[in-house]
Amino acid sequence: MDNELASSPARIHDRYRRLVMFDLAEEFELGFFLSYYRNFAIPHLAATLAGTGEIEARPAKRSFDTAIVMYELIEHGFEGDRGRAMVDLLTRVHKGVPGSGEDFRYVLTTLLVVPIRFCDEFGRRATTAEEKQSAVDFYQELASRMGIEGLTNVYEDSETFLDGYEMRHARRSDAGDKLMTSTMGLFAERMPRVAERLIPQGLAFMIDDPRVASALNLPKPSRPLHGILRGALKARGMQLRRRPARVTSRFTPGKAGSSVYPGGYQLSDLGPINHAPQSR
Between residues 179 and 190, which one has the greater pLDDT? Predict the structure, then answer.
């Protein structure tokens, strides 16, 4: 009975929510951002994303929607109305999308592994084995509800799968270049003008994989810049360590301020045209 309770969807959600929304919230926010870009490094995935026209036409909306959907799921879990609406949206958006089961596993695995790796390297602390397992359990549950099979239940195996998939598939493509051009502008707009030229090198550093960075057409950081960026992120982690733990969730459903939704959003606002859920 205790084992059944520990593995229930509610418990799986609770453990992962604590990690993402409270314990390592700032680190996961950056980690999810890095996950978003990994897909552009895979030519056939990039071609599918570019083919919809959504990212090039509305790069800010697509970026914010992707983040909001994940945070809605993590905040509310799989059993509530809002969580079920997000699973339904993800399922409908991906229905009929070209790709193998391995491709869909890869996309979920980037969300699982990339933020944890960033936390372990640059966070206020490394994630624990229990926290890693909570992430594995969460994405296994999400995959099950989306009809995606084959996700491993061992974190280390997830890392092996991610690295192997990228070794086989990551390379530069015209579609990937177009997606990078569309989305890099979003971050250039938010950075001081003096720092704009360093954005590609900074992203390459945080990607922390020369093969993937090259596939994204990102320049290798110079040795001095590499040292500066590493020192800055390590210092940031130490600053976070000195702060008290969060007592409120870093995400407020419906009120995530952004240039896309300055007055807040309804669930029906999320997703590509004709794919928005009806629940609010």
Answer: 179
For the chain, the first-to-last Cα distance in angstroms comes to 35
Cβ atoms of 258 and 250 within 8 Å: the answer is no
Smallest CA-to-CA distance from 209 within 156, 165, 152, 151 is with 165
- Alpha-carbon distance of 114 to 123, in angstroms, equals 13
Per-residue pLDDT, 279: 40
How far, in Å, CA of 38 to CA of 46, rounded? 10
Alpha carbon distance 13, 75 (integer Å): 8
The HSE-up count of residue 44 (CA atoms within 13 Å, CB side) is 13
Helix H segments across 39-128?
A: 43-52, 54-57, 59-76, 81-94, 101-122
Contact 93, 272 (CB under 8 A): yes
Q: Give rounded-to-5 percent helix, strand, coil for the chain.
A: 70, 0, 30
Average pLDDT, the chain: 87
pLDDT surpasses 70 at 93: yes
| pLDDT band for position 54 (cuts 50, 70, 90) | confident
Residue 276 pLDDT more than 90? Answer: no
Q: Which residue has the tokens 């799921």?
A: 73
CA dihedral over 62, 67, 68, 70, signed as positive or negative = positive
Q: Alpha-carbon distance 263 to 172, whole Å?
A: 38
